[in-house]
Design a protein that fits this description.
Length: 129
């Protein structure tokens, strides 16, 4: 269920998904917190910091067989006492060329409002298919 309070986060997530589809690392960087952390879905690799994540995305975008990942939020809970929020949903990765589903699962993301913009502080992915 979308509420007015979670609309800015949903808009940032939609922009993040567009940046992945477009191969736009700069747009992804604008949505990641400086010290963000990602834990990948299959091997639980920890990718710490915006710079490290952007390197991973740039490698992914350069791959001729790259996947296009999408995060689909199911729920966003915004804290009433701190400028933070938790997003939960499903993710999927499809082959860019064929559109075939290659992997999918669930995720959670922690967001923080910084200088009027919501940025991702942490994401954890679990691969289920």
């Amino acid at each position: 269920m979308t509420t007015p309070i979670d609309l800015p986060i949903r808009a940032r997530r939609a922009a993040f998904n567009r940046a992945i589809a477009d191969g736009d690392a700069q747009a992804i960087g604008a949505i990641l917190g400086k010290d963000c952390v990602m834990i990948t879905g299959t091997d639980s690799a920890v990718i710490a910091g915006r710079a490290a994540q952007l390197k991973v995305w740039q490698r992914e975008f350069a791959s001729p067989s790259r996947l296009v990942y999408e995060r689909i939020p199911a729920a966003i809970t915004v804290s009433p006492v701190e400028p933070i929020a938790l997003e939960q949903g499903e993710w999927r990765g499809v082959a860019r060329e064929s559109g075939a589903l290659a992997a999918s699962g669930i995720y959670t993301a922690k967001w923080r409002e910084v200088a009027g913009q919501w940025v991702i502080e942490a994401e954890i992915f679990v691969t289920l298919a």
